[in-house]
Design brief:
Elements (H helix, E strand, L loop, with lengths): L1 H4 L5 H9 L1 H16 L4 H6 L4 H19 L4 H11 L7 H7 L2 H30 L4 H29 L1 H23 L4 H19 L2 H7 L3 H21 L1 H10 L7 H19 L17 H4 L14
Helix pairs in contact: 2-9, 3-9, 7-13, 8-9, 8-10, 8-11, 8-13, 8-14, 8-15, 9-10, 9-11, 10-11, 10-15, 12-13
């Protein structure tokens, strides 16, 4: 909805403002966990851990209010009118799956940023405490990464309006490949300052991949299938990159006698390469006319056919 409402030259910027909700949410959740962990251990296990979940009802109410109050974009209203007039046959999901190339690319592009989020946030608590850090030290690092995301996400989003979505995401993916080992070397220093520096550095390259994801995925699909295609690609990437990465990381660590960051470095590099390959195969979408039909629909993308007379003139 943000992309469809925004000026074509500033879609990245406004999407970045919207995507600041991710670090803000993570910051709030970190504060909530920190506050509830101050309770006596027995109280925390008995009822304290429920408090943050109960407060999420407030966010649910805000989300519902926003959703019923905001106006649909002109592009969506036009597509809805065409659907009601019978001009848009076929379910959006069926149209997306019929030509799945963009869906596969959208999913693959998102694997890198979601995997890195899991490695430098949720799984970092497991790894860092396993090598000797106190939980409070890791939580401090997570606060710094959230604050870093609040700055880096809108910056990289705005940069994608100038350089293009592909260039920014590819730069972030290259950063993961080059910096995965230095980041974990800082973490392995077993000192708070290098730990925070490594986590912040990881957050910067993660933001470079994640920030343009909203406009990129939205611009990859036509209006009639945009909601389905973009959301499906995004959620599949979150499932594969963010959902399975901690499981893979835990399995790799448990298979080794000594706790080593090498398997985590390899995992981060592989996910970064997946994103790099996918975005390299993706056409640049910056400035794309969103009123155009689905770019994956050959009937919509093909130029009008002409016929030639016997003298070779076009008619």
């Amino acid at each position: 909805m943000v992309v469809e409402h925004a000026d074509p030259g500033r879609r990245g910027l406004w999407s970045g403002v919207m995507q600041m909700g991710s670090p803000i949410g993570f910051l709030l959740s970190t504060v909530a966990v920190t506050l509830t962990s101050l309770l006596p251990h027995a109280s925390f296990l008995s009822w304290g851990w429920r408090v943050p979940f109960l407060f999420s009802a407030v966010l649910l109410g805000i989300g519902l209010y926003v959703r019923v109050s905001i106006s649909e974009s002109p592009l969506f209203r036009q597509a809805a009118e065409a659907r009601d007039a019978g001009e848009a046959p076929g379910m959006p999901l069926a149209r997306v799956l019929r030509r799945p190339r963009n869906l596969v690319l959208a999913c693959a592009v998102g694997i890198g940023p979601f995997a890195l989020t899991a490695l430098i946030s949720t799984f970092m608590l497991t790894y860092a405490t396993a090598i000797g850090y106190a939980t409070s030290e890791v939580m401090t690092g997570l606060l710094f990464t959230s604050l870093t995301g609040l700055v880096s996400i809108p910056l990289f989003s705005a940069l994608s309006d100038r350089l293009g979505r592909r260039a920014v995401v590819l730069g972030g993916a290259a950063g993961v490949v080059l910096l995965a080992h230095p980041v974990y070397a800082l973490v392995d220093a077993r000192s708070t300052t290098p730990l925070i520096l490594g986590m912040v550095l990881g957050q910067v390259v993660q933001s470079a991949m994640y920030a343009p994801l909203g406009p990129l995925l939205s611009e990859m699909f036509g209006t009639r299938v945009r909601y389905t295609g973009a959301s499906l690609g995004y959620q599949l990437a979150a499932l594969i990159g963010g959902g399975f990465t901690p499981m893979f990381a835990g399995t790799l660590l448990s298979s080794s006698e000594d706790v080593s960051s090498t398997p985590l470095v390899v995992l981060a590099v592989v996910c970064g390469l997946v994103t790099a390959l996918a975005v390299w195969r993706t056409a640049e979408t910056r400035g794309r006319d969103l009123s155009a039909e689905d770019p994956e629909d050959p009937a919509a993308a093909a130029p009008p056919r002409t016929r030639t007379t016997s003298r070779g003139a076009q008619a």
